[in-house]
Amino acid sequence: MESLHIQQTKTSPEIILESDKGLAEIIGESYPENAMAFYKPVFEWLSAIQTAGKQIQFRFQMDYFNTSSSKVIMDILDNLQKYHDKGGKVEVEWLYKEDDEDMQETGEEFSSDLSLPFKMKSYK
Amino acid sequence: MMENEVINLFKTYQETSEYNLLVSFKGRLSQEVLTELGSMIRTSLSTESKIKKIFAVFIELAQNMLHYSAERKINEEQKDAGVGILIVRENSIGYHVASGNLVLNEKIEFLTERIQKINSMNKDELKSFYQQQLRSERPEDSKGAGVGLIDIARKSDGPLVFRFDKLDGKLSFFTISAFFTKEN
């Protein structure tokens, strides 16, 4: 299980996957040409971490994402919820700029169906 | 050798001036072109409070065209890309973000019903519809989530406006436009 650091581009976010800490971060903007293909490494990492039975801290700090990315984020959260349901230790953090009501509302919408620990935090 | 004809751009210039276009593009789209057009929007609308919503709607329309326009061309990277028109126009009361591209006639009924259904919903109904669609399986042959049009309706002000202009027995030109009111 390898750690991975994907650099930000104009249309895709920075992704940090730290295996030792079980920490995943997605930071920035996301509207890649093919969102499913772009996020494939995240799902592979999740699968490896979960097989090893580690705890996961997943942090979203996004300014904008398109609907294809929105679907993938939903898939990530579903994946984390399943792990949580099976007894895995999971915590999600949703960070949004303090004046970004849309991103705050989006976080609330995503978390509405989840029972895993989901923290909303604003930043300046 | 081809003769270098004089091309009369005056009519095109007059029309585009009349439309007050902030951004206009016609041709083969690519992720790179789409990104640059997005940057242009961010620059020209940097003081507009709805800039994030306008940008997001533009990206949805552009990616729809890139992936689903029935007119296709192979680009430099040997990738198949959609062809069409994208515009952002400003007038005294707001902004129009619109796209136009070819679609197969067999898609007209689906698109019409989809847009009419979306237009019949209020903001809360759109929110539930979005959530429900996001949680369902990805549509076949889709690179996205099948929620692009719902997202456009949620972000913009007022109903989506659309039309089909029939070309022949196989293809039509599909225009769709979202509107944003100016707050001041």
UniProtKB/TrEMBL annotation, chain A:
Pfam families linked: SiaC
Domain SiaC family regulatory phosphoprotein: 6-122
Protein name: SiaC family regulatory phosphoprotein domain-containing protein
Organism: Leptospira johnsonii
From TrEMBL, chain B:
Alphabetical list of InterPro entries matching this protein: DUF6272
This protein's name: GHKL domain protein
One Pfam family linked to the record: DUF6272
